Amino acid sequence: MGHKLPALNSQQRRGERGVGLLHTNRQISLCRDYVLENNTVFYFYFLSFLTTTEFIFSSSVSQKYPPVKFLSEKDRKRILITGGAGFVGSHLTDKLMMDGHEVTVVDNFFTGRKRNVEHWIGHENFELINHDVVEPLYIEVDQIYHLASPASPPNYMYNPIKTLKTNTIGTLNMLGLAKRVGARLLLASTSEIYGDPEVHPQSEDYWGHVNPIGPRACYDEGKRVAETMCYAYMKQEGVEVRVARIFNTFGSRMHMNDGRVVSNFILQALQGEPLTVYGTGSQTRAFQYVSDLVNGLVLLMNSNISSPVNLGNPEEHTILEFARLIKSLVVSHSQIQFLAEAQDDPQRRRPDIRKAKMLLGWEPVVPLEEGLNKTIQYFSRELEHQANNQYIPKPKAARMKKGRPRHN
Ligand SMILES: NC(=O)c1ccc[n+]([C@@H]2O[C@H](COP(=O)([O-])OP(=O)(O)OC[C@H]3O[C@@H](n4cnc5c(N)ncnc54)[C@H](O)[C@@H]3O)[C@@H](O)[C@H]2O)c1
Q1: What residues are in contact with ligand 1 under a 6 Å CB criterion?
Q2: Could you read off the pLDDT of 114-124 as tens digits, one per residue?
Q3: CA distances for 215 relative to 154, 156, 170, 211, angstroms
Q4: Taking a C-beta distance cutoff of 8 angstroms, is the pair 187, 172 a contact?
Q5: Which of the residues 32, 103, 180, 268 has an alpha carbon 20 to 30 A from that of 96?
């Protein structure tokens, strides 16, 4: 009769220091018992090999990942993040992983990158699935953060039909999944649903001013109907929904060429190129740092507020002020260049966050300059990384072997 190797307990599975050693010793002694009973040398070597490799793997596991909290079975949630390899999604992944939850990221890598979540790959609480939300998905989860959608104008205008499909069919699929497994769904909606607003600042009860056939409509209307779908599923099927209306956000892992104001200005300033301002630069925006947004999303998901909530930083600046501030933080000699106004570009944008403050106790805490400095550091590292990884074919002469000169 052979022994079954013991299953690891949850603490051991969590990859704590020394677990590899404990586990290996126990397994090796069991292998020895097995050999004594069966006198089968082959099994001994085979199992020793397995346990040794596992030991090496487990020891490296304990050092490889950022530290994660231990949560009891009762408190640990299985969480799906669609679009989790993107800018916001990857920061949300970090928070939920470090809080001790099991996180599944689903992404089709349209604008997201594996690199954004690579530090979790192989962790037992983490799963990465290459999947398009326009196709149905069948998994077991307790909460769904539905972020999958291109978010910057050049990206969502690149393929407007796909943007519409992602926000409509993709959202229906995720609501269908939420209904089937009894999960709560949080939709990453946007301030764009207010369009070019006629009221200022924008509060959640403002219905918006959107051009339904303009170039941004695929995104604005896509998100508006996604919200409608959430409330239809809530009323008709009893699905628990949360809707976050996210205002402009910035931080590390923004895509290098996604064409958003902050990333554009920082990259232009770092490379000594002119900072391009569309129109006069008098249009306003309010930017929040990504860690503030992530905290707001988690608070909202775990609250009992099912109506939409604005998440943004109410500190409003003109685009021109942003350009000047970034130029001075980078210490750049770039010029500011004025280009023709973009169509349907909202003139003023500033969230009214009284609801989030009152009901979630949330408000942004990261000062603008601090967030910008962190983002500038990130983009300089990215530029360096790009420069170091460019493929430059070696000239023929460099490939010649030493001591064997060629005569041409
Ligand atoms: N960043 C902001 O300022 C901001 C503002 C308002 C709303 N939002 C919303 O937050 C969410 C995340 O935005 P972000 O800034 O991280 O953008 P992002 O482009 O970095 O991330 C979006 C992610 O969704 C993925 N994706 C797109 N289509 C998909 C599909 N069909 N199936 C699976 N994955 C798909 C992309 O590959 C990417 O990883 C979006 O829903 C966006 O609308 C962001």
Answers
A1: 82-83, 85-89, 107-112, 132-134, 147-151, 166, 170, 188, 190, 246, 248-249, 255
A2: 999 999 999 99
A3: 10, 10, 21, 9
A4: no
A5: 180
